[in-house]
Amino acid sequence: RVASERIGQKFCAHPEAKDSRALFCRYPPRFYGHQGICRQYSQFCPPQELQFETDAGRIESAVINIDKTLFHALQSCGVLKEEIWIFKVFVHWCPHCQQLMPRLYRLALALRQAGALKIRFGAVNCATEHELCGEQKWPGHPL
Question: What values do phi and psi take at 87, rounded to 5?
């Protein structure tokens, strides 16, 4: 959880994230919608699953921010073989990625709340993790 938070802060500190005013540059997405925005752009509003969740650990760990070091650590300790991992490969300036981000988070949170603990979600920002995206041959985003 601490590593994910640190990696997420690095994603959002990237100059492109600031310049493009990326709406969602990390997980968990920081929802900021008010009623007018929520009616027009529902992806900016907290989903119902988030509104009723009281466990901060579950909220913070539904989707883990992954960098090269953490990815290789998960690989070397065998976690990627013991659990099912679904990685969202994105760049923070991509409109399609921004549309998918809250939906993926909602799915991940709902599965954690339902007790599906062997299905994990990770997010890799290819704007900051060029090497990892290249070595894994992830062709584009969103993926």
Answer: -105, 130
